[in-house]
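The methods section describes the discrete structure representation at length, but only in general terms. Since the whole study asks how a given chain folds, the encoding of that fold should be made plain. An entry of this sort, consisting of the sequence and the corresponding backbone structure tokens, reads as follows:

. . .
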Amino acid sequence: EGSRLAVGLQSSPAVSGQTLRGDEPKGRISICDGETGTQVSQMEIRGAVLYATITPDGSRLAVAFGESGLQSGSRQAAVGIWDTSSGALVNTLPALGWGAFARLIWSPDNTRLLRPSVVTETIDNKRQSRHFVQVVNAVSGQELWKYELPETDFPNPAWTWSPDGKFLATLANLDPGPMKAYVELLDSETGRPLAK
């Protein structure tokens, strides 16, 4: 709704010439008033900020954070959820595999968070990745459902919630080579595929 703006800052030992201890924050996010630019709150992030998103009503901030510089598929990302007014940490979701183009997406009612993950395995000397999305309760952190994506050549498809929050739609590519895209519709309460 435009009332809040998140501004991320990253510590860079390579630029500053400093060595960060493991317990030092590596990133910081400032929440600013959307009209005046005045800082409302600030969050210290214990890892590289990989992705950040604010709820539609501006009340919560979700940040995926982990180690920077790791190859996609081997990178792990935890997710912190903060209250944007007070800067208080509301919840921390455990670290899961994080893909190169992954992103977090809030439900329209600000209560659920779509979170992607990737599991990389080596089978017969061939590196393979399995991609998942999960929807979690943003307050309790409880996983509401998890869905394994069909094997595609585009591992992080585009996702969007319907305006009423009842459905999730994804756009993905089925086959390598010429683009053969499809749209899939899922029930957002259960993760059950409804149409493709």
